[in-house]
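Margin note: ligand = manganese (II) ion.
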Amino acid sequence: MGVHWCAMKRCGMKSAFFSFLALFCVAAAAQTPSTVRVNGPRINDHLSALSKFGANPQGGVSRVAYSEADLQGRSYAVTLLKEAGLEVHVDAAGNIIGSRAGKEPRLKPLLIGSHIDSVPMGGNYDGDVGSLSAIEVAQVLREKQITLRHPLEVIIFQNEEGGTIGSQALGEGLDEKRLNLVSQSGKTIREGTRAIGGNPEQLASVKRQPGSIAGYFELHIEQGGTLEREKVDIGVVEGIVGILHSDVTIEGFANHAGTTPMDQRRDALLSAARFIEKANQVVTSVPGRQVGTVGWIKVEPGAYNVIPGKVVLGLELRDLDEKKFTGLFDQIRSEAETLGKLNQTRFSFTDPVITHPALTAKSFQKLVDDTARSLGFSTKVMPSGAGHDAQEIARIGPVGMIFIPSIGGISHSPREFSRPQDIENGANVLLQTVLAFDARD
Ligand code: GLV
Ligand code: MN
Ligand code: MN
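Resulting structure:
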């Protein structure tokens, strides 16, 4: 519009004025949706500001869900969402949702977002990059006065690190078992959800029907080293692994460490050590990308001079194929029974808590890939070894994910780092993907 107006009304004027007009015309043209860009320094400033909440001495954050730091970070996110002109509310599951009306209200909403909770001793990028970039997309739409055809929802999902809790409330729903799980904060999911402004009694109001959204896009750091190693700008995610968690209890007999002969002990920690080795052997005994980890362990009573009587540890298995990791779990359980007999200890496993794997929509992969290339970025189609809110949202509609490089492939660590330019690139891919999707769908 601006270009036409210039051409018709002014272009016959004196040539001294013409170059100014040409510049004006270019500036006006730069406002068209395909040429709008995010404000990279602003996203990176917001990242630094968010990193203050729960900052740990190692340079990362410890902002586990439902902690004081999480509450502070969430309140900062609400401020940014409001500044971006969004209608903000906290749903019954404790997710923060910023909404913006579309030109065609009969269209289903388009969702973008991520999470801002962290693992204990986490970094400043996991979840934060995608959350703040999604807010930036809304801010740019406001500044450029662009109204999408679709209603837009920017969602900051609660407690991603504790098992994609907030996104699961929208997708599969949260059952009693999940609500009773104790999170890293020490609160159960139910207590934590209440503490952040949700209402666990009203979860039915949050669940969305399959087919009720137009789609969901999430930008995230890769958390592995592939993109950096191969010097690729943007990862196009093809699928997100499923995750199985089970608490393993090993009961032995606590006794005097000085007077109990070596052949008369029922040492729970020794049995646990053998179990960890065995679990690793089972996971690596078949070809594929599956991974298995024992990530935490508690020993009782925990003294130099007492043979450990009880151990509880956390077993995690991941793969894109759920049958594969549940099969490995069964195998590990049966190996544990054999080990228990040999070491005179007793193994028991809690029922596995499973986050299902999900594939991204092929059409969304293509859209992300085409958009990234049109912006001049190199791309690679790749799986995600980390879990994401997108895998829960995949139950109710098509999802797409955009990855940017993680330096050194380090994540869930204070040393997690992504370059400011890569963050800006990823946010521009998110913005342009949203615009392209909106124009097309
Ligand atoms: C989530 O970040 C996970 O992969 O554990
Ligand atoms: Mn994450
Ligand atoms: Mn994470």
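The pocket of manganese (II) ion (ligand 3) is lined by residues 119, 126, 161, 386, 412 (CB under 6 Å).
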